[in-house]
Known about the structure:
Chain A is of the alpha/beta class.
Amino acid sequence: MIEIKDLHKSYKMGSSQLHVLKGINFNIEEGELVAIMGSSGSGKSTLLNILGILDEADSGSYILDKTPIKNLNETIASKYRNKFLGFVFQSFNLINYKSALDNVAMPLYYQGVKRKERYEIAMRYLEKVGLGSHSHHLPSELSGGQKQRVAIARALASNPKVLLADEPTGALDTKTSYEVMELIQGINDEGKTILIVTHEPDIAAMCKRNVVLKDGLIIDDKKVEQVRASSYV
Amino acid sequence: MFNIERWQEIFEAISKNRLRTFLTGVSVASGIFILVILLGAGKGLQNGIEKQFERDAAGIIEVWSGTTAKEYKGLNPGRQIQFRNSDYSQSVQKFEDKLDLRSASYNFWGGTITYGKESGSYQFRGIDPDYGAVENVTIIQGRFINSKDLANNEKVAAIGVKIKTDLFKDKDALGKEISINNINFKVVGVFTDPGGEREEARAYLPRTTVQRAFGGGDKISYMSFTVKKTKDYDEALALSEKFTTDLKALLRSKNVVAPDDDSGINAYNSVKDAKQFYDLNLYIRLFFWWVGICTIIAGVVGVSNIMLIIVKERTKEIGIRKALGASPFSIISMILHESIFITTIAGFVGLLASLLLLEFVGPMVQSEYFRNPQVDFSVALTTLVLLVFAGALAGFFPAYRAAKIRPIVALRDE
């Protein structure tokens, strides 16, 4: 599903260059649940942003579902993001003046899905994450866990090939974190490819594969015995 | 192409950000309001100035005689010059091809006009038929003095509506006999005059009758002319000035007055003053347009600033939308639609408020040089087009900026 070869990325910091990714190589197969781990500044978020076509690598190759992602203009990039990817952010990134249902329906709006169908699909995903009864609530009327569930429903609504989650439990308490992970595991069980960036070992333990980054390089990449979040909930 | 989905998105964004929308709208509405009021005020000034000239026909040249101030051909200064019928007939004969209206007048400043038991002191004038057009009178009953009246020395009178009201009250004046300085005249017409009550307290009689009946002989008080109309104002001015100079030269020569003696024979050319007034009017209107355009530009800059702030405030939202698949075009389109929509609606409100104000308050404003401020439909339409364009312009740059923001940068915005 994802093939990455010799990926490099630098940022300009004043007069000096900060080399964040120093040659990343890895593949992700369809249906995997991968945790990308590493301490702060290891380059894990930069890697996720490149995988999410939110940022571009300086060099190396990135193939997403057999499509080379290179030198895309913003119009094509937005189309690919909408078609291939679903995002879950640490800070939820819901639009605060839109209801839960409107937020979930938004990626479908950019896919050109008709309003009625859009809301039917959005409602289905809200129900899937257990928030069918909160569809008309504004984000400000939801708890942190509920917001993240809405964000997951939104990420799934456009039926993306890959779900990218950047610290999805970072803003949640432990119990809610496990509930969210239980939901993510359930989605993965249905066959969805999921990448999670986290610095929490117990969250990484709930994934099937752990990739560890340090100073812009992969220092460890192994399959793990998956811990089911349901055992904590 | 109309896209209902896009409009639903826009209405949602607008309705959820009411204060922001309201403030943007107020700045646009006030800009348009000020522009239209300024244009209306310009028109009010124009109306006022035009009203001043409406009192008499446009471009009158009046010639009158006085006492000579200079010695000429052995004749001492201080001679009283008196125009006579021959002065008028020679003038008309010589300049026939240049003239439009012409009239000689023989005036009595204080005459007693009586009808039955009612009487009053009024001015009466012996005039030629064109004098009605010279004074710009409107006949509301009957007719004005005609050439047949002059030829037959008819004892007929056209009276101003003030005399009619004073002497006849509600009764019909037409065909009734009135006494003017003890000589009976039949009322053949009643007129109004844009010059107001002062000029409606006059009676006009055939010049020949007045000269004969009141011992005037062939004397005339002054002559009034207008030259033929031209399309170009400067041409009209040049023509009228040449005519005035030539006419004065003719009359000075005939009456043995020094060629440069304005006291002996003088003339007033209202075309010259009209040009000054119309130029002034043009400058005032240009000034109002300029101020108005500056107001609109200030409004556009203001709206543009507000839109920039809105884009800044919505940077994260734009980032989220981009992450979810919004193309740069859809971002530009969203902000532009919103901007144009707010500008147009707010502009309409400003336009409507200003038009209503001008419509209801305008007619009440009737001062001497400022009357009935108004804007016509074409100006309102121009303003409308201007504001839609302004809305697009105000929205475009912030929209373009928003579209250029990289999603990762936008998402990091707090």
